[in-house]
């Protein structure tokens, strides 16, 4: 399904079951997240409420399916660190449903997320990308002006292997995002 048919909108409580299902796949089947137990819908409700209270975006990509529409991915910005001096720096998260990659949905979500972050007063966005052996996430972030900010070697252990993380950073004050 091409991204041109997607609607990017704010996540609602009605979307949380789909969001939980999408993320559950990545928790149980991959190393792209260091979570080991999939969050419940109630956990997602708390996250949505927290981010909404902070004025940070939580978006979904909704696409046509059959006679209706379905959530094919989501993105949100959360606090980078809890200390007050970091309040204008956020960490972004993007996940697409299995089988929904390669159609431009990630770019649609990331572009909308960065716009909404800037509107919320965020100056810096940090991406923490687990080294899963694929460059797709880093390539997507580079397209939107993210630059390498460092590598943390062997900081995660999941599915019997040690995993590095790559940090990327985007300065929203430069206007360099497409």
From TrEMBL:
Residues 6-173 form the N-acetyltransferase domain. It holds the Pfam family Acetyltransf_4. It comes from the Bacteria. This is GNAT family N-acetyltransferase. It comes from Streptomyces niphimycinicus. The lineage of its organism: Bacteria, Bacillati, Actinomycetota, Actinomycetes, Kitasatosporales.
């Amino acid at each position: 399904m091409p991204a041109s048919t997607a609607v990017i909108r704010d996540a609602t409580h009605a979307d949380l079951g789909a969001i939980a299902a999408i993320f559950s796949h990545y928790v149980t089947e991959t190393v792209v997240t260091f979570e080991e137990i999939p969050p419940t819908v109630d956990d997602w409700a708390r996250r949505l409420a927290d981010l909404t209270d902070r004025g940070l975006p939580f978006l979904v990509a909704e696409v046509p399916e059959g006679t209706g529409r379905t959530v094919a991915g989501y993105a949100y910005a959360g606090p980078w660190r809890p200390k007050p001096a970091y309040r204008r720096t956020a960490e972004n998260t993007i996940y697409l449903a299995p089988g929904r990659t390669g159609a431009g949905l990630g770019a649609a979500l990331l572009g909308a997320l960065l716009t909404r972050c800037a509107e919320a007063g965020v100056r810096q966005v940090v991406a923490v990308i687990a080294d899963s052996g694929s460059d797709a996430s880093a390539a997507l972030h580079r397209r939107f002006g993210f630059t390498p900010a460092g590598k943390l070697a062997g900081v995660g252990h999941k599915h019997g292997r040690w995993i590095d993380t790559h940090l990327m950073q985007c300065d929203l004050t430069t206007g360099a995002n497409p």
